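PROTEIN DESIGN WORKSHEET
SECTION A - STRUCTURE
LENGTH: 133
TOKENS:
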């Protein structure tokens, strides 16, 4: 069969640098409902999704029951992310973290809440507090 050029070869890597930045954002913004030991940052390569910068994944309720596990989240950063400047990257991280609900139960908050307004607000708070805390 034919394959699209560059397609079919998705690769994932631990993103320890982004993990550390995410943890700093959580600490500075006091997002205490997020268990950082259960949120994993990954980079993906070879995705054909040109418009996506990052996405948030969750271990849903059924799989949690099947695995006798609590909730887990993964934030996947696509190749486009690394081409952005640091400030915009921080906003992307904040955006993805906002998808994680207060219950940390395996569901998502949606784009009525995860919107540019709230991201800008939190990013401003992060910039103001990061040097202080
Ligand atoms: Zn989103």
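SECTION B - SEQUENCE
RESIDUE ASSIGNMENT:
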């Amino acid at each position: 069969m034919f394959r699209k050029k560059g397609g079919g070869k998705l690769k994932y890597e631990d993103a320890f640098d982004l993990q550390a930045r995410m943890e700093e954002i959580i600490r500075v913004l006091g997002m205490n409902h997020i268990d950082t030991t259960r949120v994993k940052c990954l980079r993906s390569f070879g995705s054909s999704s040109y418009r996506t910068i990052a996405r948030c994944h969750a271990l849903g309720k059924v799989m949690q029951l099947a695995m006798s596990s609590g909730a887990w989240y993964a934030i996947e950063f696509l190749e486009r992310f690394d081409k952005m400047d640091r400030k915009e990257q921080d906003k992307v991280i904040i955006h993805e973290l906002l998808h994680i609900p207060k219950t940390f139960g395996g569901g998502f908050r949606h784009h009525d809440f995860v919107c540019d307004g709230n991201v800008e607000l939190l990013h401003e708070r992060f910039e103001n507090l990061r040097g202080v805390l």
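SECTION C - NOTES
Residues 95, 99, 111, 114 surround zinc ion (CB under 6 Å).
Residues 45 and 79 are 6 Å apart (CA to CA).
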